[in-house]
Amino acid sequence: xxxxxxxxSVYMSGVGGQGLVLLSNVIGAACASAGMxxxxxxxxxxxxxxxxxxxxxxxxxxxRSPLIPIGGADAxxxxxxxxxxxxxxxxxxxxxxxxxxxxxxxxxxxxxxMKDKQARYFSAxxxxxxxxxxxxxxxxxxxxxxxxxxxxxxxxxxxxxxALSTIEAFPVPTExxxxxVAENVPKKAVDVxxxxxxxxxxxxxEHLCNVVKCRE
Length: 216
What we know:
Structural class: alpha/beta
Largest sheet: 6 strands, mixed
């Protein structure tokens, strides 16, 4: 499957409490301000239970359905490493993976480790190894550390947005995204989130732009 000119589909995943819905709202508002057509499909019924949540985001004049078909996402953005693996089937062959280094292990896995002290948790590097079977365009972003550097551990989602904004094929203007961040986060957190956005861009430029064409 190839991407039509000016169209881009990104499948975003995470767990409850990571700000995935806010992230989709920021992108959607940025598209609206830039005069771009965007459709979203959200599943967040488990957001209050730290359950898996996801958002389909499709951008482009020719888009008619809000849902990304299997194998149709140009990029997979995961706020939790395990969620990248859970939804990798949506990524097109050779698509881009932006993955947070954070791993929030499910209760079922923790319970197993309580019984077997020798068991090993699945790590972000383990996830990357599995994803490498599908694409070589993978960037693991240490969003927890960058969010702390920006001034708030709650800004991991905006760090990841900054990373996404470096990709040349992602059609939403950077300034529109930054304006949308400022308009959609609490006023007292605007400066922190804008720093998080810029740190995410910087991190992606260092670790993604050698395998993906990035904006100037």
